[in-house]
Specification:
There is one protein chain. By secondary structure, the chain is an alpha/beta fold. Helix content is 44%, strand content 15%. Strand 5, helix 8 and strand 6 form a beta-alpha-beta unit. The longest helix has 15 residues. The protein starts with 7 loop residues before the first strand and ends with a helix.
């Protein structure tokens, strides 16, 4: 940041099954240059649930909690919320960085970069049986392939243990968002600059999805983070912080 500039506002949005505390280390690295607002999505932490629990409803709630002018960093589901918010709030959201984000989590015609619907159905069944066990399994999946897989998985588990998971209904409706959302048709309406950061070893959202997302946005660029899986900001926090600082300092 140039000398004499005031700290700018940055909103951080977490992914499914996590919570705002997942940003702790990255937020500490960004705090000297920006004023950080790590917000819980509705139904997480102290944030009340919202009805209906849809992507647009989540974006609307975040818009009411966020500063009047800000940048946003969203991870996975939080990245989808960030894009939906940016699309409808051009005066509020100045620019956005999305991490491990896809416009469409599920595989469908014309989109081979998603997860098979049957995998989501399996997640839904496991969630009904034992939410804690599913979240633990999901932590391992997010860390799989990362050079720092053990540390990333431990951090994800520690966050869940420290804050407690949201109730099963919130998790189920969050899965419904991941299953049903397809942002591709509306990406041209996101006019703000966007940085898409993606782990090269992501087994939850393939890097090709991030590339396609960046290519479809009017003012976006894609940055591949080698050695990382689905949570590069936990695996290589210094590198991710540097990339984000450079983007939001432009």
């Amino acid at each position: 940041m140039r000398a004499g500039m005031k700290a700018r506002e940055l909103v951080l949005l977490h992914g499914w099954g996590a919570g705002a505390g997942i940003w702790r280390e990255l937020a500490q690295r960004l705090a000297p240059r920006f004023r950080i607002h790590a917000l819980d999505l509705p139904g997480y932490g102290a944030q009340p649930d919202c009805h209906p629990y849809t992507l647009d409803a989540l974006a609307d709630r975040i818009a009411r909690l966020a500063p009047r002018r800000c940048g946003v960093i969203g991870w996975s589901l939080g990245g989808q919320v960030a894009l939906a918010w940016a699309r409808g709030a051009r005066r509020q959201v100045e620019r956005a960085a999305v991490i491990a984000t896809t416009p469409c989590f599920t595989r469908r015609p014309g989109w081979p970069h998603g997860i098979e619907r049957g995998v989501f159905d399996g997640f839904a069944r496991a969630l009904k049986q034992d939410p804690a066990a599913l979240l633990d399994r999901f932590s391992l999946l997010q860390a799989r392939g990362d050079k720092e897989a053990r540390r990333v998985a431990m951090r994800l588990r520690a966050e869940s243990a420290a804050r407690g998971s949201p109730d099963r209904g919130v998790l189920e409706r969050g899965l419904d968002i991941l299953l049903d959302t397809d942002l591709r048709a509306g990406l041209a309406a996101v006019k703000q600059p966007v940085l898409a950061l993606h782990g090269a070893r992501d087994s939850v959202v393939p890097a090709a999805a991030g590339r396609r997302l960046a290519a479809a946005l009017p003012h976006a660029r894609f940055q591949l983070v080698r050695g990382c899986a689905h949570a590069p900001f936990l695996s290589q926090p210094a590198r991710i912080a540097k990339a984000l600082q450079a983007f939001f300092d432009e």
